[in-house]
Every structure is written in structure tokens, then in C-alpha cells.
Design goal:
The chain is mostly helical. It is built from one helix and no strands. The protein has one domain. The radius of gyration is 20 Å and the shape is rod-shaped. Keywords: Membrane, Transmembrane, Transmembrane helix.
């Protein structure tokens, strides 16, 4: 029973680690798209 709990904790920790990495990557992507949009607006994007 204790072994199952340890294995489950390990799985949860790995899932949390992956979730944090995905959140950081998504945040970086959003910032990148925002920065590109601002640069295009400042450059006078043609219609």
C-alpha cells in the first residue's frame, strides 16, 4: 500500500513539472506574439 502511494506521488510530481514547463512555454509564446504585434504596429503595418 505504501509503495502505491509513493508511486502515485512520483507521478503527480512529474505531471506538475510538465504542467509548469508547458505554462512557461505558453507564456513565452504569448509574450512573443504580443511583441511581434507591437513591432508591426510601430512599423506601420500595410493594410
Amino acid at each position: 500500500m505504501n509503495d502505491d502511494k509513493t508511486r502515485e506521488d512520483l507521478i503527480r510530481r512529474r505531471q506538475m513539472g510538465r504542467a509548469k514547463v508547458m505554462a512557461l512555454l505558453l507564456g513565452a509564446f504569448v509574450i512573443l506574439v504580443f511583441a511581434i504585434s507591437i513591432a508591426k504596429i510601430q512599423a506601420g503595418m500595410p493594410h
